[in-house]
Design goal:
Length: 178
């Protein structure tokens, strides 16, 4: 990759509202990622996707939004620099995963859980080895429950943190070794 900037995909809820704590967390995450030299990628729509892209743009960064034709009438948010449009939701998911060098997971619903689970399992199966950082409180609590199951494998590079700054510090170290 040479001197190319690393891309971090941010997964989170598309339903959070502006001025909520979750929106502020997503905004701060995007802002700090961009300030640290990362390209911010996400699903390109509203909620935490809009917040992390806005944060990245406010920090002078670059954003990528992966959107899909399957979400009829859904348009990318105004803070996306480059839209990559995929015909299906599944292709959208894999583009987000394949195109990223690392991942930050915020709180969200089943879509966010799916993004986390697929990324996590791809690491477990050595289909890729990319750092995954979970900031979302509810997602961290859920992972703590999963860890009680002896069949659940936690891959190397999987971190639970409590702040965007901790996430960026971890990703910076992990991706400088890649």
């Amino acid at each position: 990759m040479g001197n190319e900037k690393k891309t971090v995909a941010v997964f989170g809820s598309g339903k959070i509202k502006e001025n909520s704590d979750k929106f502020k967390l997503a905004y701060e995450t995007g802002f700090l990622l961009a300030k640290s030299g990362f390209v911010v990628a996400n699903g390109g729509y509203g909620g935490s996707m809009l917040a992390s892209a806005k944060g990245a743009k406010d920090a002078g960064g670059t954003t990528i939004g992966i959107t899909t034709d399957e979400f009829r009438g859904a348009a990318k948010n105004e803070f996306i620099d480059r839209e990559i449009r995929k015909p299906t939701w599944r292709e959208r998911l894999y583009q987000l995963i394949d195109g990223a060098d690392g991942f930050i997971v915020l709180d969200g619903g089943t879509g966010t859980l799916t993004e986390l689970a697929v990324t996590w399992e791809m690491n477990n199966k050595s289909l890729h080895v990319k750092p995954i950082v979970v900031i979302g409180k509810q997602m961290r609590e859920m992972i703590e429950l999963f860890k009680r199951n002896p069949e659940v494998q936690i891959p190397e590079g999987f971190q639970l943190v409590s702040s965007p700054q901790e996430a960026i510090t971890y990703l910076t170290k992990a991706l400088s070794r890649a």
